[in-house]
Design a protein that fits this description.
Structural class of chain A: mainly alpha
Number of helices of chain B: 19
CATH class of the largest domain in chain B: Alpha Beta
Strand content of chain B: 15-25%
Shape of chain A: rod-shaped
Distance between the termini of chain A: 97 Å
Strand content of chain A: under 5%
Number of helices of chain A: 2
Radius of gyration of chain B: 37 Å
Oligomer: heterodimer
Largest sheet of chain B: 5 strands, mixed
Number of strands of chain B: 19
Number of strands of chain A: 0
Number of domains of chain A: 1
CATH architecture of the largest domain in chain B: 3-Layer(aba) Sandwich
Structural class of chain B: alpha+beta
Helix content of chain A: over 70%
Shape of chain B: elongated
CATH superfamily of the largest domain in chain B: DD-peptidase/beta-lactamase superfamily
Number of domains of chain B: 2
Order of helices and strands of chain A: HH
Chain lengths: 90, 573
């Protein structure tokens, strides 16, 4: 009887220690999750800001102004545009 | 050694008195405790909480709006709002000065806000760039906090302002698509109740954090490149002709998606101030009398009814026709024209005679099936219905004038959708402002043969001898129709005010795009649709087709401009 009790006691100790360890691990992982989520949010914000920056720099009015004014480019005459059908057939 | 002291017996009442006094003190304390804990607890708890616990709002991210190719049209990025809890603030005049400088406001103004110690929440400055807000926090003044909010930016600016609309300071849609899809775009705000110490540091959460739910993204049907093109050409024409306003719609004929929709005058949605009269999306919410752009529908009605064939000759007489008490005119009498040339030359008498060959309900039925008199359900605030009176009340003269687009009013969006019938071999398709995966199936309202016959007539309009040679596009066959109408002012047609329009499609062999242009009150001499609106159509159509890599269906030398001394084919107004 005592033997059985001792075994059960040992098992209880082991499982108690197991609970403590796994809870500790869970907490650490949770903290890490929180940090990663915060990072996701930060990257989201940065992505938004970069999108905004890109589309501000790439405003069509600005591109057009630089192309025609600064780089002296012009749209070719329509007669000089050859449309190529997909598949190479003319 | 020990000296016996005499025992002095104090009177018993002294002991009892002392005991009673002490007990009384306890009773008083107990009573006070009951009063505070039991009767007054709510009030005190509330006051106590107010000292250290705060509910923080967690803003949700509003969804992004993009064009059909994923380019951003509206995007929210975080900004910081600086707020203070005046009872917790301790500040010296030097810090106050620095703070005011960083906030770009007067020190006296900040001081006044901070003196108001009854409130525990005052905004010092809303929506600051995050870097500037960080500098405010570096001052280390206790009782001053940041709150993250989102500000909406519109990278396309005035180019797509009318369609997209804008949001107000609380991040709710005020106009346009922002308003219609507000629930979809905006997320749910979260909150967090925390305990803070005297320095304003968060010590712990009091209850579970309500995580904010972000809004959804929205993909519109418009193409930012074509939108810019349409905006640029329309703005140029409105300026050149000193017009009051203008609108343009570019529709994908195959899918019914709106590729561009632009209005003049426009405004900057990033800073919407003084926008009265500028924020209307005229193409959708305003109606006008379309004039001759309605003639093709009259032609379609008579072809369907079988009362005319494309080559049936119509006697247009000497240029005037009297119906009842009223007389209608053609400025360039041509004696006899067939149906195709009635459309090409835009003859009012021809159109009127065609209309009068039909019963009123047949013509009404055609207009009704084309969607006139009913709003185009695209999901936009204030979609115009237009005016199509019930046929039971039509007089013959009204039936005749309606044949060429007077006494009826439509929106530009209704008009462009109705022209889709000729582009899609008789099928009317639903119109969409959102990108769709596959082309919807429309309803067949006229026969394939009629649709093709009318389309062929519309091709004549842009040929020399028609009203709109300026609508031609190099390399593509174009079909379209001009319209020039006197404006209705207080129920009377104004002599010198016009609405010029052009609606057309290309390539005519298998139309891909339909474009409708409307210029309101051009007042620099020219006012014919063929001179004012057609060049805008041509410029936008040509570039848009090339951008979409639509194969050409005509040689590049197809544009035939009539010689300068050729008589201009004037449209009837």
């Amino acid at each position: 009887m005592i033997k059985l009790n001792l075994i059960l006691f040992a098992l209880a100790i082991v499982s108690a220690l197991g609970t403590v360890t796994s809870q500790h691990k869970a907490r650490k992982l949770y903290i890490e999750l929180q940090q990663q989520q915060e990072l996701v949010r930060q990257y989201d914000v940065e992505w938004g800001q970069l999108q905004l920056e890109q589309s501000t720099w790439a405003m069509h009015a600005r591109i057009e102004q630089i192309a025609t004014g600064h780089l002296q480019m012009q749209v070719p005459d329509t007669a000089r545009i050859q449309a190529v059908a997909p598949g190479g057939a003319h | 050694m020990a000296i016996a002291q005499p025992i002095i017996l104090l009177p018993a009442w002294r002991r009892r008195t002392l005991l009673i006094v002490v007990l009384m003190c306890f009773v008083v304390l107990l009573g006070r405790a009951v009063y505070l804990q039991g009767l007054h607890t709510d009030f005190l708890q509330q006051k106590g909480d107010a000292r250290y616990s705060r509910t923080l709002k967690l803003s949700a991210h509003r969804g992004m709006m993009a064009d059909r190719n994923g380019e951003a049209l509206a995007i929210s990025t975080p900004v910081e709002s600086v707020w203070a809890s005046p009872p917790d603030v301790t500040i010296n005049p030097d810090q106050l000065k620095k703070l005011a400088q960083l906030l770009h406001v007067k020190p006296s103004e900040v001081g006044k806000k901070l003196e108001n110690s009854e409130r525990e929440f005052v905004y010092l400055k809303r929506r600051m760039p995050p870097e500037e807000a960080a500098r405010v926090m570096q001052l280390g003044i206790p009782g001053i906090f940041l709150q993250r909010e989102y500000r909406r930016f519109y990278p396309a600016g005035d180019v797509a302002a009318h369609l997209i609309g804008f949001t107000g300071i609380e991040d709710n849609g005020q106009e346009g698509v922002e308003l219609v899809y507000n629930d979809w775009l905006s997320g749910k705000q979260g909150s967090r109740r925390v305990i803070k110490d005297r320095q304003g540091h968060i010590i712990e959460d009091q209850e579970a954090v309500k995580v904010p739910q972000d809004g959804h993204d929205l993909v519109l049907s418009i193409d930012r490149k074509i939108q810019y093109l349409a905006h640029r050409e329309l703005a140029r024409a409105v300026e050149q002709h000193k017009a009051r306003a203008g609108a343009i719609v570019v529709l994908d004929a195959k899918t019914g998606e709106v590729l561009a929709i632009s209005n003049q005058p426009s405004y900057n949605p990033n800073n919407p101030v003084n926008i009265t009269g500028r924020s209307r999306n005229r193409a959708i919410v305003d109606t006008f009398e379309p004039g001759s752009t309605l003639k093709p529908f009259t032609a379609a009605a008579v072809l369907e009814a079988g009362t005319f064939r494309p080559d049936t000759m119509i006697d247009t007489g000497n240029g005037s026709l009297t119906i009842g008490k009223a007389t209608i005119h053609d400025p360039h009498p041509a004696n006899a024209l067939d149906v195709a040339h009635v459309i090409q030359k835009s003859s009012n008498i021809g159109a009127a005679k065609m209309a009068l060959s039909l019963k009123p309900q047949v013509l009404w039925g055609m207009f009704n099936q084309m969607g006139f008199g009913a709003p185009v359900p695209v999901g936009f605030p204030g979609e115009a219905t237009g005016r199509l009176r019930p046929w039971q009340h039509w007089q013959p003269i009204e039936q005749a004038t309606m044949a060429y687009g007077h006494g009826i009013s439509v929106s530009l969006l209704q008009l462009v959708r109705a022209y889709g019938v000729f582009a899609n071999d008789g099928e009317i398709k639903p119109v969409s402002l959102l990108k769709i995966k596959e082309a919807p199936i429309g309803q067949h309202v006229i026969s394939v043969q009629t649709a093709r016959e009318v389309r062929a007539m519309l091709e004549l309009v842009v040929q020399p001898g028609g009203t709109a040679p300026k609508a031609q596009v190099m390399g593509y066959r174009v079909a379209g129709k001009t319209g020039t109408a006197h404006k209705l002012i207080n129920g009377e047609y104004a002599e010198d005010r016009y609405v010029s329009s052009f609606v057309g499609m290309a390539p005519a062999s298998s139309p891909r795009l339909i474009i409708a242009v409307m210029i309101d009150e051009p007042s620099d001499g020219q006012y014919y649709g063929g001179a004012v609106a057609a060049p805008v159509f041509s410029a936008v159509m040509g570039d848009a087709l090339r951008m979409l890599a639509v194969p050409q269906d005509a040689p590049t030398n197809n544009v035939v401009i009539p010689p300068d001394d050729a008589p201009e084919v004037k449209e009837v107004v």
